[in-house]
Write a structure and sequence with these properties.
- It is a single chain.
- 17% of the residues lie in helices and 38% in strands.
- It has helices at 39-63, 72-83, 117-120, and strands spanning 3-4, 10-14, 17-22, 25-30, 86-90, 96-100, 126-129, 134-139, 156-166, 176-186, 194-199, 205-216, 228-238.
- The strands form 4 sheets. A 4-stranded antiparallel β-sheet has the order 1-2-3-4, with no helix packed on it. Strands 10-9-12-13 form a 4-stranded antiparallel β-sheet, with no helix packed on it.
- Strand 1 (3-4) and strand 2 (10-14) form a beta hairpin.
- Helix 1 (39-63) packs across helix 2.
- The longest helix has 25 residues, at 39-63.
């Protein structure tokens, strides 16, 4: 139904015509015809809807064990990345179903749009997963101002790195922390290079490495959207 706005122009629809006001001018166009969605489009929409609910459960499982500041963008970015891990898998009876397969798309998930991990850091660990289910992560020396960038007014920070397992293809999703590191970061205080070694249990699951940085200042004058950031650094699907 069309109506007259305060400038005397029509706005809305009359029959098959739609009136739109833009930049002081009135434009008219025909109503679009009904779009018949294909089976694939409807299936994708349904899958994305199911993924949204599943992602919430998965995120809550992780944040129950790992402190992540819940910025508004976090859930949206996480859900979008998780959707990219969905693919087709074949059961023993040769039936095909959709499942969460390769977790690699989760790497680089943006936890904070306003202070992204790439803006806050400039270091790249090296990962070596041996055939004996032993993981070795080589961390380079960390220097404030070079490998670690502080936002305005920050004088201290905590860098936390977690290795954990999670099975995204279960309803009762559980996050199991395998190992973790915590560093207190201060200006003019370097963190030496080191190797982080931990064992990986037998099973079918994702193994993921997640890192976060939280900043502090004596005056508590850091901008709210710069107090925390993080991302997934590494991810792999493990099968027995």
């Amino acid at each position: 139904m069309a109506r007259v706005n305060k400038n005397g122009n029509l706005s809305g629809a009359i029959g098959n015509l739609v009136f739109v006001n833009r930049d002081g001018k009135t434009h008219v166009r025909s109503k679009p015809k009904k779009v018949n969605q294909s089976t694939n489009i409807r299936g994708a929409a349904t899958g994305f809807g199911k993924n949204s609910g599943h992602d919430r459960i998965l995120r809550e499982s992780i944040t129950d064990k790992i402190q992540i500041r819940n910025y508004r963008c976090f859930s949206i970015n996480h859900r979008t990345r998780l959707r990219l891990t969905i693919g087709e898998s074949t059961n023993q009876d040769c039936t095909t179903k959709m499942a969460y397969l390769n977790p690699q798309p989760m790497v680089g998930t943006v936890f904070n749009n306003d202070w992204q991990w790439e803006r806050a850091t400039n270091f790249y660990p090296e990962y070596n997963l041996s055939g004996q289910n032993t993981m070795t992560v080589h961390l380079p020396q960390l220097t404030i101002g070079k490998q670690i960038i502080f936002p305005k007014n920050a004088v201290q920070a905590n860098l936390n790195i977690y290795a954990f397992t999670i099975n995204a293809n279960t309803q009762n999703i559980q996050t199991e922390i395998l190992s973790s590191l915590s560093f207190s970061l201060e200006k003019k205080k370097d963190i030496p290079a080191q190797d982080w070694i931990f064992d990986i249990p037998q099973g079918t699951f994702w193994i993921m490495i997640l890192a976060t940085i939280s900043y502090t200042s004596p005056k508590n004058n850091i901008a709210e959207d710069h107090k925390h950031t993080g991302t997934y650094l590494w991810a792999k699907s493990i099968n027995p």
